[in-house]
Each structure stands twice: as C-alpha cells, then as structure tokens.
Amino acid sequence: MSIFEYNGAAIIAMAGKNCVAIGSDLRFGVQFQTLATDYQKIYKIHDHLYLGLAGLGTDAQTLSQRFVFKHNLYKLREERNIKPSTFGEMVSSTLYEKRFGPYFCSPVIAGLEEAKDGTWQPYLCGMDTIGAIEKAHDFMVAGTAPDSLSGMCESTWKPDMEPDELFETLSQCLLSGVDRDALSGWGGIVNVITKDQVITRTLKGRMD
C-alpha cells in the first residue's frame, strides 16, 4: 500500500458564481481499519481561504500548522490577509524546500480573490508533494479516489452555480465518489465560501 493511501482521504474543491466550495470526507483510518469518523482534513486560513490536505495524517497536521504560522507572519507584516493566489505560491515553495524528503500530502486550495473591478473570483489549485501547481477554473480533487471523484465532477459541474446549487453538486460528487473507495467515507463536511459568509454543513453518508 502506498504511503498516500495509509490514512485515506477524499477532497473536492469546486468553483461557482462569486463563490467557491471545498469538502472532504470524515474518516480517519490505518489502512482498512477505521479509527475515527470525525477527522477534518480541511483547514481554515482566513474567511476567504481554505486548505485541504490529503495524504498522511501526521504530515497534514504538521503542514497545516506551518501554513497558519506563515499566514500569521504575513498578516503581521502586511496588515492584510494573504490572497489565495499568493498563498498557493507559498505552499508550493514550502513543499519544494523539502523535495528530497517530501511531506506525503497533496494540498488543495480554495479561495475567493477580489478582482480590480470589485468582483470576487474563485481561485482553485492543487499540487503534488513537491509543489508543482495545477490551477483549475472548475474543480480540483485529491485523495485515494481521484478517478471516481473526477468522473462525478465532470458529469455534474456547470459554470456559474449559485451557493446552494454548488453545495448540492459538491455534496453529491463527494458522497458518490467515496462510496467507490474503501479508504474514505463515513460522511463529510462541506464549506461554501461567499463574499459575506462561510456556510459549513455536515453530510451523512454510508457507515460501512
């Protein structure tokens, strides 16, 4: 078994109209043994920026603490929150620093970025263990079931979805994807990020 599949994960980030959503499953296991069903894989950086970390659980916790620390330093120095695109580059460089002994994590970044014309644009990106960035305008997946998650997203995503429709679409993709993966599941959690608020909802899934 690959070290990336040791704990199991399923993460989806999806773009909508002036909103973005990111969701993950809640299972924490050691290979095929389930240890917890309330393990969160999504970390809040600030109100308009969330980070999902799929891969080895210990490395995910280490990385999340490092990124929160780096954002706090940035906020002290610049007196503003970091932009999602800038944060993506920071995550990439942090991973590349350790390329000869990498963290076993695949980050997914979802955020809203204010454009020059005053509108809020979704920002989505993912990367591998050494920080090679892949940006997307529609959706980004990571975890132990990327094929089934990608297939569901490709068949159901459409542009300019409102927050409620975006939540419903991402939730159905997440639940359907983890049903085809023994290493993830046991419900999920979805964060929908808009300009004014973050809506967090918990999903109930199959418990087998």
Automatic annotation (TrEMBL):
GO cellular component: cytoplasm; nucleus; proteasome core complex, beta-subunit complex
Compartment annotation: Cytoplasm; Nucleus
GO BP terms in the entry: proteasome-mediated ubiquitin-dependent protein catabolic process
Main subcellular localisation: cytoplasm
Recorded family membership: Belongs to the peptidase T1B family.
The protein's assembly and partners: Component of the proteasome complex.
Function, as annotated: Component of the proteasome, a multicatalytic proteinase complex which is characterized by its ability to cleave peptides with Arg, Phe, Tyr, Leu, and Glu adjacent to the leaving group at neutral or slightly basic pH. The proteasome has an ATP-dependent proteolytic activity.
Protein's name in the database: Proteasome subunit beta
Organism in which the protein naturally occurs: Symbiochloris irregularis
